[in-house]
Amino acid sequence: MEHPTPRRPEDHAVYRPDKMGKATLFKSERLLVGLNAFEPGQSHALHAHEGMDKLYVVVSGEGAFLLEGREEPMSAGTLLVAPSGTPHGIRNTGAERLLVIAALAPAP
Fold first, then answer.
1. What domains can be seen in the chain, in order of their start residue?
2. Cα separations (Å) of 92 from 7, 27, 47, 50?
3. What is the DSSP letter of 51?
4. Most buried residue among 39, 40, 75, 83 by CB atoms closer than 10 A?
5. pLDDT given for residue 23 in this prediction
6. 68 or 20: whose pLDDT is higher?
């Protein structure tokens, strides 16, 4: 068994000029913990996961959670849970980079 290692999410961020960057921080059969990195103006379109719940935690930056029919503001420390089948997405509406932890259970 591996012992847990503390990590700073920003040390693993992958920013891309063309689209949202992704990095995997942890993966098992039960849980996937990833990192979504957005340059200003980038977004992750509205989508849903059947059979998986998703948790977002904003590490840094500002933006909006995209939800069916509305947008909710997000900033560092904000958390959103999207239960199975719930349409959700993210848009960086700020002038700085946006970094968000995304956890899915069970793992895809």
1. 36-105 (2.60.120.10)
2. 24, 26, 16, 25
3. T
4. 39
5. 97
6. 20
